[in-house]
Specification:
The complex is a heterodimer of chains A (about 250) and B (about 325). Chain A has ten helices and no strands. By secondary structure, chain A is an all-alpha fold. With about 325 residues, chain B is of the alpha/beta class. Chain B is elongated and about 75 Å long. Classes of the chains: A mainly alpha (about 250), B alpha/beta (about 325).
């Protein structure tokens, strides 16, 4: 195992993040604060509690997921796309680095950034809404698994994309709608049929539901389903990433 | 440089061995058609070839950037696929394009390269490399602030950060000025003196002529020639003797028709061509016979075919 290479890639990615720390942190914190002000304070004040949880507190897990998903994908996809675009990928490809080490370095750094950001959003939410975390260890577990699996997904997008436009397409056109429609702002029970049934085909529902359960002990779907869904997604992404790196798909000429 | 590198002798033993290497792209284009090539330990090997001949593809496969279709590459005793860690750790690559991390400092990017290749931090080694390449004063500068020539040096420093025993230089002096080119040549010579095996591709034949021990010519994905540089120049090179005559000649005298002579400049210059590698040049016989024919001359000049002319004629022959 080339741990020194993993450390080199990880450190490189983290230093890139720290170089632009202001914009890396300010943007998601400001947008999350706006959500809390608009949905939590303004609209939420007129809404009743959902499953015994005030609306302002109810949306915290969903909002955290929204930011973590976007940041994980954005960071990891940029991390691998930029060296591809600038040509510096030649050094990674010519180094004694295996597919697993490459993933650990790039995805590990993107996961770290997302988890730090999640923690920051949690602290920010405290300014607007009081909340308690029923299962802190599970919350951390969901946070880590989600950040890691979506960083992996972002890594795949970064390899797949051959233009800056494509790099933006998936987060904008797929992830954001799925998150909004995945119960970030409402309970699935509130949807009429057939939308309620259709929603269960949205994988993000399982993430948000599981994450919300770790906060308030209530969920739209059984927690086991949520864990299985994230684990399944993670394994699928690892297998695809392995194939991409070993075959050189859009990495090697 | 490490003690190992400093003591490595130049031998006939192959440090890079390439066998039956082919590369066919998805569109059917065959970039390499069965390359067999041995690079000797400690030598400077120049790979020459026109654009699109397959030079960069060959280097890229050896370094792991491109997957081969078939064939095998062994670097310092290790297969570059089965034993990719050991093989790649021994290889350094300086690419043709100036691909650098613009926002990183020179020191950080070199340290990154060393770690990437699985080597523990060694600030003393990085310092030595940067000093050798006249980059020490720039160590804290961001790469984006450096000139093109300096960026080229940074790429060399990155490639040397993990003390490779084999260094690939893909067009190392493309786009650099004459002074820097000579500096680069000195750097390459120093590396060779320390035992690093160097494989360079170049468009500047002068560069190969100046530095290489052996020359390989690749054309349309095939190695058409591998030869010791001096042997090649002797074998394929021609020399000529130009005599500036006192009186112009209308034609070559019949008595001299058996010699390889040509008249130029309206008959005022008589050119005699002979093999550069031949033991007997035939010059004294020529001069005696000219004296016998009463042909006088006031000046003479000899010249030798350059590697460039040899290369051009080889490529034309095979085209």
């Amino acid at each position: 195992m080339n741990w020194l290479a993993v450390a080199a890639i990880y450190k490189f990615e983290m230093s890139r993040w720290f170089r632009t720390l202001g914009q890396s942190i300010a943007s998601p914190v400001i947008s999350t604060s706006l959500y809390f002000i608009v949905f939590g304070a303004a609209i939420g004040a007129r809404m009743g509690a959902i499953d015994g949880v005030t609306y302002g507190a109810f949306i915290i897990p969903g909002l955290m997921m929204l930011s973590i998903l976007n940041e994980s994908i954005g960071n990891a996809s940029f991390g691998i796309y930029f060296p591809k675009w600038s040509g510096t990928i030649f050094e990674i490809l010519s180094a004694p680095v295996s597919w697993g080490e490459m993933l650990l370095g790039y995805v590990g750094a993107a996961t770290t950034k997302s988890v730090l950001l999640g923690a920051l959003i949690l602290v920010t939410a405290r300014v607007f809404v009081p909340y308690e975390i029923a299962h802190p260890l599970w919350m951390l577990c969901f946070l880590l698994l989600t950040a890691a699996s979506f960083s992996l997904f972002g890594f795949l997008i970064g390899i797949w994309a051959d233009s800056w436009e494509k790099l933006q397409t998936v987060p904008l056109l797929v992830i954001t709608p799925l998150t909004f429609l995945g119960g970030a702002f409402y309970s699935i029970d509130m949807l009429p049929s057939p939308w309620r049934e259709l929603t269960f085909f949205n994988p993000v529902v399982y993430l948000i539901s599981g994450f919300r359960w770790s906060f308030y002990g209530v969920s739209d779907v059984p927690v086991g389903y949520s864990v299985a869904a994230i684990a399944g997604f993670l394994v699928t992404c690892v297998l695809i990433a392995r194939w991409m790196i070993l075959s050189g798909y859009r990495l090697k000429r | 440089m490490s003690a190992v590198l400093q003591t490595a002798p130049r031998t006939d033993e192959a440090i890079v061995s390439i066998r039956g290497l082919t590369k066919t792209y998805a569109n059917g284009f065959s970039a390499l058609k069965g390359i067999d090539l041995d690079i000797r330990r400690g030598e400077i090997f120049a790979l020459l070839g026109p654009n699109g001949a397959g030079k960069t593809t060959l280097i890229s496969i050896v370094c792991g950037i491109v997957n081969a279709s078939t064939g095998q590459v062994v670097a310092d005793g290790f297969d570059n696929v089965a034993d990719f860690r050991k093989a790649r750790a021994r290889i350094g690559l300086v690419p043709q394009e100036l691909h650098t991390d613009a926002f990183e400092t020179v020191w950080a990017t070199c340290s990154f390269s060393r770690g990437l290749f699985g080597f523990k931090p060694d600030p003393a080694h990085i310092e030595r490399v940067l000093r050798d390449l006249s980059l020490w004063d720039k160590r804290n500068d961001r790469i984006m602030t450096l000139s093109g020539g300096m960026k080229r040096r940074v790429l060399i420093a990155k490639a040397l950060a993990h003390e490779p025993s084999i260094l690939f230089l893909d067009e190392p002096t493309a786009g650099v000025d004459v002074e820097l080119r000579h500096d680069m040549w000195n750097v390459v010579r120093k590396l060779r003196e320390r035992g690093t095996t160097i494989i360079l591709t170049t468009h500047y034949i002068e560069e190969a002529e100046e530095m290489a021990d052996r020359v390989g010519v690749i054309l349309k994905g095939e190695i058409i020639l591998v030869e010791d540089k001096t042997t090649l120049m002797k074998k394929l090179g021609k020399r000529e003797l130009a005599l500036h005559l006192n009186e112009p000649l209308a034609a070559i005298p019949v008595a001299l028709a058996d010699l390889n002579l040509e008249l130029q400049d309206s008959g005022s210059v008589l050119v005699y061509r002979f093999d550069a590698g031949g033991e007997a040049t035939g010059i004294s016989r020529l001069l005696n016979r000219l004296g016998g024919e009463g042909i006088g001359f006031h000046d003479l000049k000899t010249s030798e075919t350059s590697l460039e002319e040899i290369f051009v004629s080889l490529v034309k022959e095979r085209a």
